[in-house]
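Go through this pair.

…
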Amino acid sequence: MNKLLFTAALCCSMATTAMAQDWTNSKYGPEDEIGAANLITPESVLKASKLIKTGKTYNLGIVVDSKTPAFSPRSLSVSVLQPNQIGTEGLGTNGMTYNDDIFMGWLGIGPQIDGLGHIGIKHTFYNGFKDSEFAKADGLTKLGIEKLPPIVARGVVLDMARFYGQDIVKEGTPYTKADIIAAAEQQGVEIRKGDVVMFHSGWLNLLDGENQDHKRYVSVEPGVGNSGAEYLAEIGVMAVGADTWGVEAVPFEKGSDGVFSVHQILIPQNGIYMLENMETRELVKDGVKEFMFVLGAARLKGAVQMIINPIAIH
């Protein structure tokens, strides 16, 4: 190799390396901890409010209990107590009685938001933060869920079951860039910067009725593919959700580089939040394509994820 070719090859290699590392430097600054949530502004909230046409509200979080299938080894249980009331007529002269509950479990179960401290690449997380610096046993000192501002945004839902002509989209089906573009065009909806994008596959039908199959539900799933994730990141969406436990296709897409690569593309590389086990059936049944999305996640300091119930208002 002559000197000119060697120099060119070296420059190309350096450029590729630099591009590969670009994601570790957030465009919102070296101290940023909220990623795509920076897209929320008073102007964007007012714009989202104009999507309300009927005033109907939709729960986007599924009902969760100890039997809800979850990514292993996650589980939960609730114990209800009546403190200092057993064997009494109640407290005080008026006999006041009350129930309290103790929650024991994982916060990444059922309907949940994956925070920016959830997924990293070789121990490097969003904005280049190293887990050795912020991931402590008693909570994250950076990227904790308490940093997340109230999310109010334009929400859109794509009916992928309709697009593929299936009641329940087959497991392992990756929603590619071409598929997402075609589905949006077919359904007359545009994906825009700052959107919360939901994908409906019919997968939640496996949790009830005659199709009930909890083992299948949590072991495989259809979902966003690599090119689809890159496309959504290119648009600049704020969050990506689905009616599945992990949002991305499992078994992983053929040719995919590694485990949960869509999680890596969205969360650490682009600061985009992920919403799992979202209830999209009623939205699709009503023909809703866009709506006002509202989420105020519990501000548990240092938490990685949070059980949530976002609301869609149409």
About this structure: Residues 25-72+107-313 form a domain with the Glucose Oxidase; domain 1 fold (CATH 3.50.30.50). The longest helix spans residues 3-21. The two ends are 63 Å apart (CA to CA). The chain has a mean pLDDT of 93.
